[in-house]
Amino acid sequence: MLLDCTDDGAAYFHSNTSSNTQLLRTVSFLWHIFGVTFMANSTSEIRALTASAFRTPEKFTEFCRNGGKPLGGLIGGEETPGSMNATFQTIDPGSLEVLATISEMGEAEVARAVSVATHAFQAWRNVDVEKKIALVTKLVELCERDKNVLLACEILDGGKVSELAEGDFGQIRACAEYFCGVARKIAMGDGPSMQVSPGVQGFTYREPWGVVAGIIPWNYPIVLTAWFMFPALLSGNTILIKPAEDTPLSALYIGKLAQEAGFPPGVINVLPGRGEITGHCIAEHPGVRFISFTGSPGVGQAILRTCDRNGTRMKREMGGNGAAIVLADADPAVVARMIGRYTNQHFGQTCCTIHRIFVDRKIADEFTDAQSAFFKELKIGYQADAGTQLGAVINPTQRRRILQAQQETVERGGKPILAGGEAVVAGKNGFYLKPALYRTEPGLNVNPLEVFHTYATICPVSSAEEALQLANASPYGLGASIWTKDIKRGVSLAKQFRDGTCQVNCHNSIAYGLPYGGQGISGGPGGGVNCEETFLDYTQVKAVYVADYPG
Ligand code: NAD
Questions:
Q1: CB under 6 Å to ligand 1: residues?
Q2: Fewer CB atoms inside 10 Å of the end CB: C or N, the chain?
Q3: Is 3.40.50.300 the CATH number for 75-318+524-545?
């Protein structure tokens, strides 16, 4: 079997009798990571995602300034200040510059949003699918018209390098087009009927939930807003979007564009605020029929318990502690660079990022040297300056958590190769940290938690089976990969991961049509994102029985 690449970069396998070729040397490398598809033809091209210089567009500055008022939520087609009179500031994590002041939505605003969304649902559920698709298409076009504003949201508010932000931006159209196709294909309403018994017919009836909320984290604001919004809307629900408090700008801007696109008032509502206030009020509100949560497992578990009290249903996509297994036949220099690129994607702030590497002992030293060289090469800097590959982390809490994880790794027996710690970027006051790399031994379990930075441990192993056992000894289960020239063996081993996404010679992979979800504490309930199951998650099915009139 060989890894093959489609035009849009999605990977698939096909049989090939001349397998076990020098795959890593002869076939172009494929990256289909969150927003970025990238091909490299030589080892030297395998580099970290990199910034181009980015200048703040005037339209973004105007949007943030909002005529001197805090940016309000969007409820029923109107910008709404919070009745609590509470505001918060959203900052650029690389410079600590305040970008905008936002009005926090409290209990009253959540109640109003649920009320207008409930009202709007009565009409929206019956809008013809082609009309819904036309509105979604218009919204995508407006996003593309204002691409620079949305890139500014990702780069300045989210702290991303432009190469990743550009890739993320492309997911708006890709996701919309995929779910428009799914919406045309999946039949809502009456299903086929069956004769239940003499004189009794039965059939299924598929319908949207009603008011559906998407609770979104800060690391991929545009991508995750699109992944939630399009399937939820196209299946006939009205929505509340709750962006993360660190990155509220892109959802607020998309909400404004949705009004311009002509979505009826109340169909799309945006509720910025803290998790413990706005998020909690949404989770507690009995009028919210379904919640799509993306974030950390602890918060997801708490929201599920809250939801259960009201019978609110939920789907959850949560954190990971990604593993990579490098077999003895892999070229250590090549694979270390590939893994380095994935580990550093958005500076390690990617849910499925590799934090745990298990390498065959025969190549462990050579691999460690190459991994360390890649990490040392990373250019630490401000995310909007050309050449930056490792920018600031999102907030001071994350910085503290990462530094603590580095310290605990050493306390548990990890041997630092690169010790991490704080980094200094001249003229910038952001949350900068150095990459961290450790050697460890089987059984030490030095990094049991998601670290969320450019951080990895390298554990030498004696067999692939030992590596699999160690990789699977984690409560997380989001994404894992095997690196080998022997594709057949790689596929067989990859299927044994206890993860939602199992990969051979790639990592951080996504493709529309394949579920992206987690096992263990990384996901569920729900069928993951980006597949037909996702669309079905936003619907419910009831059985209808019809008997002849008695007598
Ligand atoms: P988080 O769990 O702290 O917050 C996520 C969202 O939940 C935010 O909007 C937050 O305001 C809200 N929230 C917090 N407390 C709440 C409460 N009590 N009630 C209701 N809402 C509440 O996560 P984060 O730090 O923003 O994001 C990082 C996490 O997200 C990581 O664990 C990462 O792996 C995960 N993630 C997972 C995926 C995936 O697809 N599996 C994708 C991206 C990020």
A1: 215-220, 242, 244-245, 274-276, 279-280, 283, 294-296, 299, 302-303, 317-320, 351, 450, 478, 518
A2: C
A3: no
pLDDT, tens only, 426-451: 999 999 999 999 999 999 999 999 99
Cα distance between residue 248 and residue 228, in whole Å: 15
Q: Whose CA is nearest to atom 13 of ligand 1?
A: 275
Question: CATH homologous superfamily for 320-504?
Answer: Aldehyde Dehydrogenase; Chain A, domain 2 (3.40.309.10)
Verdict on whether the full-model pTM lies above 0.70 = yes
**Which one-letter amino acid corresponds to residue 502?**
C
Whether pLDDT at 4 is above 50: no
In 426-496, DSSP assigns E strands to: 436-439, 455-461, 479-483
Strand order in the sheet with 200-208: 189-197, 200-208, 539-547
Best residue among 219, 228, 250, 277 to mutate for probing ligand 1's pocket (most ligand atoms within 8 Å of CB) is 219
Q: What are phi and psi of 121, to 5 degrees?
A: -60, -35
Mean pLDDT of the chain: 93
Q: Which atom of ligand 1 sits closest to the CA of residue 243?
A: 9
Distance 294 CA to ligand 1 centre (A): 5
Domain boundaries in the chain? 75-318+524-545, 320-504
Residue from 163, 166, 317, 450 carrying the catalytic annotation: 317
Closest residue CA from atom 9 of ligand 1: 244
106: CB partners within 8 A, 6+ apart: 82, 83, 84, 86, 273, 277, 278, 281
Cα 218 from Cα 51, distance rounded (Å):
19
**Nearest CA, atom 30, ligand 1:** 295
**Per-residue b or e along 210-223, where b marks 16 or more CB atoms closer than 10 Å to that residue's CB:** bbbbbbbbbbbbbb
- Has residue 400 got a pLDDT over 90? yes
**Strand 87-91 with 313-318, pairing:** unpaired
Question: Per the structure block, which two tokens stand in for 227?
Answer: 């992944």
34 pLDDT band, cuts 50/70/90, is: low
